[in-house]
Structures are given as C-alpha cells and as structure tokens.
Input
Amino acid sequence: MITVLYICLGALVVAMALVLVRLERGPSNLDRAVGLDVMTSAAVGIVVVVMALTGRVDLLPLLVVFAAVGFLGSTVIARFSQAEAIGEGRMLSREEVAAIPESMLDEAAPPVHPDAEDEEDAS
Output
C-alpha cells in the first residue's frame, strides 16, 4: 500500500511540473488560470498523500485552506476576466488566414461574428 502512495506522490509531482509549463506558455490568461487551479488541486493531493503516509491528521486545516483558495481564486479570475475574440487564443496558419474574407480583415469595418451571415440568410 505504501508503494501505491509513493507512486501517487510521484505522479502528482510530475503533474505539477507539467502544469508549470502550461502556466509559463499560456497562451491566454484563462489557460494560466486553469493551470493555477490544477496546481492547487495537485497541492491538495500531495497533502492528502503526505497525511496518508505519515498518519498525521493535523494537516486537515491546510487542506481546507488550499481548497478554499483554489475555489476563490478560480471564481475571481472567471468573474473578472474579459472575453477573448474568436480565434484570438491561438495562431492561425497561412491557409486559415487566406480563408478569412477581406471584410473581416479590414480594421475600419465593424467586427462581424463568423456565424452572422448564416443568421441573415435564415431570416
């Protein structure tokens, strides 16, 4: 049973390392927010594994604090983050840029939702 706990601890540490890469790369702030939430969840998991390995129950308040901070942090970020434009979250390939109509690339033209033409045809 102790071997399983050490394997879980190693998996959580690897997950935290991979999440650090996601936090650094982004590309958007919401990706970073999700990475921070996963990091908090992994920290809770590590504390649970340490509690199971050592038999300590005095770390329970730490779990409550980690869970509360993770929940409140995610809620605050979701509440105050701005919505991104469609397609802004990633880089477009040359083929995708060539497929965009000129009217959408013109900076003076008002922004048009990609599905707006479908709605106009239906009415």
User: Anything to note?
Assistant: The first helix runs from residue 2 to 25.
